[in-house]
Amino acid sequence: MCAGLTHGGVIFVPRTIAQADTRLLLRRLNGLIEREGKADWRSRVFWLRV
After folding, report:
1. What's the total number of domains in the chain?
2. What is 4-32 written as a DSSP string?
3. Torsion, Cα of 28, 31, 32, 36 (10° steps)
4. Is residue 2 assigned to a domain?
């Protein structure tokens, strides 16, 4: 990564969450937003909790 550059943030999904399990994915995304929603997401990396 180049120094001084920013990005919009990245959310990684663990392989333990099945791609077809939309409900679980949405619940985990909602939980992340509840925990971190007011934070500055620029240049941050998040992992969804299993």
Report:
1. 1
2. T---S-EEE--TTS-TT-HHHHHHHHHHH
3. 180
4. no
Within 10 Å of residue 28's Cβ, how many Cβ atoms?
19
Let me know the angle formed at the C-alpha of 40 by 47 and 33, rounded to the nearest 5 degrees. Answer: 50
8 Å CB contact between 36 and 46: yes
pLDDT in tens, 1-50: 567 789 999 999 999 999 899 999 999 999 999 999 899 999 999 999 87
Q: What pTM did the predictor assign? A: 0.75
Domain containing residue 26: 10-47
What's the confidence (pLDDT) of residue 3? Answer: 73
Interatomic CA distance for residues 37 and 33, integer angstroms: 4
